């Protein structure tokens, strides 16, 4: 009889079962970016600066996207932080996706950045004139204007 060895058990932070969410609603994943808050070359300005931030022990990618609303960028860091901003600091370097390894505290099957690393999402430009349901707001406005014009002409005649 030959002895067999078992592989070591996976740690609680094992990423092998977690994955990067490719996108949620109007946002698409664009990469794992380095946080620049402690980077003197970036003047200590965060990768996603000028926006808002939320911390939650139940953070998920969908929660962050929802919190960011219409911000151009959304990023998750350290499994629990969500940052929203109109711009991505050009000093923030794109890193290999494999560098972002923190599990989202609200859904351990999702990746939420890492230590000084952000899983970064960008709002799709095609959604900029859309409602949260994906309806083209300018198109609806034009349609309503046309209907109102027709109704007005009907009552005048």
Describe this structure in words.
The protein is an alpha+beta fold. Helix content is 18%, strand content 25%. The strands form two sheets. Strands 1, 2, 3, 4, 5, 6 and 9 form a seven-stranded antiparallel β-sheet that branches. Strands 7-8 form a two-stranded antiparallel sheet. Strand 4 and strand 5 form a beta hairpin. The chain is globular and about 35 Å long. The termini are far apart.
Order of helices and strands: EEEHEEEEEEH
Helix content: 10-25%
Note poorly predicted spans. Answer: 4-15, 130-155
- Indicate the structural class: alpha+beta
Shape estimate: globular
- Subunit organisation of the chains: single chain
The CA-CA distance between the termini, in Å, is 99 Å
Number of helices: 2
Return the average pLDDT rounded to an integer: 78
The proportion of residues in beta strands is 25-35%
Number of strands: 9
Rg (CA only): 22 Å
User: The biggest beta sheet, please?
Assistant: 7 strands, antiparallel
Domain WSC: 26-124
InterPro entries: Kremen_rcpt, WSC_carb-bd
Protein name: WSC domain-containing protein
Membrane topology: Single-pass membrane protein
């Amino acid at each position: 009889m030959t002895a067999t060895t078992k592989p070591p058990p996976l740690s609680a932070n094992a990423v092998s079962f977690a994955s990067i969410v490719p996108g949620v609603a109007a946002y698409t994943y664009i990469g794992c970016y380095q946080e620049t808050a402690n980077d003197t070359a970036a003047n200590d300005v965060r990768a996603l600066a000028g926006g808002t931030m939320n911390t939650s022990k139940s953070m998920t990618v969908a929660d962050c996207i929802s919190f960011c609303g219409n911000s151009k960028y959304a990023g998750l860091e350290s499994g629990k932080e969500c940052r929203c901003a109109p711009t991505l600091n050009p000093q923030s370097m794109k890193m290999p996706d494999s560098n972002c390894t923190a599990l989202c505290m609200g859904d351990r099957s999702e990746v939420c950045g890492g230590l000084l690393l952000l899983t970064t999402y960008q709002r799709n430009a095609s959604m900029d004139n859309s409602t949260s349901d994906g309806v083209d707001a300018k198109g609806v406005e034009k349609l309503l204007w046309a209907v109102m014009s027709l109704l007005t002409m009907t009552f005048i005649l």
